[in-house]
Amino acid sequence: MNLNSQSPIPLYIQLAQRLRSGIESGVYTVDEKIPSENILADQFSIGRPTVRQATDLLVREGLLQRRRGSGTYVLPPPQKIDLFSLTGTTAALQKSKVASETQLLCKPVLLSADEVSTQSQLPAVLSQRELYTLQRLTSLNGKAALVEHMYLVADVFQGIENLDLENQSLSRVVSDEFHLHATAADQSFDICYPELKVAQALELESAQPALHVSRLLHFGDLQGAVYCDIYCRTDRFQFSQNITVTE
Amino acid sequence: MNLNSQSPIPLYIQLAQRLRSGIESGVYTVDEKIPSENILADQFSIGRPTVRQATDLLVREGLLQRRRGSGTYVLPPPQKIDLFSLTGTTAALQKSKVASETQLLCKPVLLSADEVSTQSQLPAVLSQRELYTLQRLTSLNGKAALVEHMYLVADVFQGIENLDLENQSLSRVVSDEFHLHATAADQSFDICYPELKVAQALELESAQPALHVSRLLHFGDLQGAVYCDIYCRTDRFQFSQNITVTE
DNA sequence: TATGTAAGGTTGTATTGACAACTTTACTGA
DNA sequence: TCAGTAAAGTTGTCAATACAACCTTACATA
């Protein structure tokens, strides 16, 4: 079985399409290996770097995962989780009936207004204020799903560093301990390649993108009391949202 | 100037980091070329394939664009557009004061219930119904930004194929002609690699991801009367959303 | 001065080859 | 039967080389 070297379509794209079809049709089974790079090179009469270019595409699409020394595996399709409605992340996960575990990557730390002013990615409403910052990793069914890097206005959330912030919805903590409820949010969505620490926490492959959501939460008159950068693996879980008109 | 070949960090990642720093610090200017692959290979004493591996990363991150025969260019950062609140896409763009142009890629076509039932990606609420389908490309400031592939319930939107659907908010058409207003939406967000036609319309590089949003719109009692797959280039524009609590 | 052509420069695709770092498998000895 | 070790197989990184397909630049001619 060979590829068409007279075709204007590059060989690596032809091979990628063959492999993609094989995955979709079940020829290659989820959680099992596809043939090794050397075997594919022989089968299709092309070089191993060209095979790697083809599998690079499918790794990036979230269909395959390479494991050094072991092989190249077919990944399962993503599950669906409502994450971007205003219910709060851990609450949404509990509703979705997936086993979820949240752990702190960084415990809450108090940042002075000077320190905050050096962090240019924070919204203007938070500049020049003291903030608590913390990072959490949430795994679903034992698999890393999302990382949250949160900033909370220190004045509003005094004492939060003494609370248990693992395996518990932040919105519940905010509600139970501070008697606040989010009333609105501004979010933006983009594709990014997270910094190394976040990529490692999410178990991302080299140059694998993540969905990045910047979320600024408003609590009635307390505008922008919480800011959160969320990094999601959309290849493992599909993140959804329900919204309604507010009029 | 050389890379550290004794480092455990691969050479291509070291070079990528050097180039990224150069872009962020302004050493390499937006809309101008970085040094050619051969020049970088000489400068850093590495092979051209290794240089290409490094620039591959930055192309994927949306920092660089390669143009065959011309060079490798630094791309400008994305602009911010509110797209995922419930205001409707073209209306949101008008509000953002970017020059926007919307053109049909496919005019509305009526799909029979049989044809609809073969399209597995549509939500269950739409199966077994006659639908109009159409595709639109929206460009902002002359640059392809998003593609919408829409499905509208035929009973509800009879006659829509006779309306002008270019350069006009669908939500306005729906409002003016059918006296309907979206009251809620279910959306999900993921990173995808669109099919060729969509990728071409968006001017995506090979294996460049797009943000994919599936949106099901509800019009009061008319649940799920419009379904839309939206593919966005988040490297050119940053897409945002404002949501509020509905209680 | 403008147009056309050729040469040079640039990125895109592909091959062959080598070695490192890892996992898996098979065999041997206690 | 179990543990340890070596060999084989797998992916990851790197390089040289070649040719194709494109763009840019410079020069010549009308």
Automatic annotation (TrEMBL), chains A, B:
Keyword terms, alphabetized: DNA-binding, Transcription, Transcription regulation
One GO BP: negative regulation of DNA-templated transcription
Organism: Leucothrix arctica
Repeat as UniProt keyword: no
Example of a GO MF term: DNA binding
Residue span, HTH gntR-type domain: 9-77
InterPro entries, sorted: Bact_HTH_transcr_reg (IPR050679), Chorismate_lyase_/UTRA_dom_sf (IPR028978), Tscrpt_reg_HTH_GntR (IPR000524), UTRA (IPR011663), WH-like_DNA-bd_sf (IPR036388), WH_DNA-bd_sf (IPR036390)
Protein's name according to its UniProt entry: GntR family transcriptional regulator
UniProt-listed Pfam families: GntR, UTRA
SMART domains: HTH_GNTR, UTRA
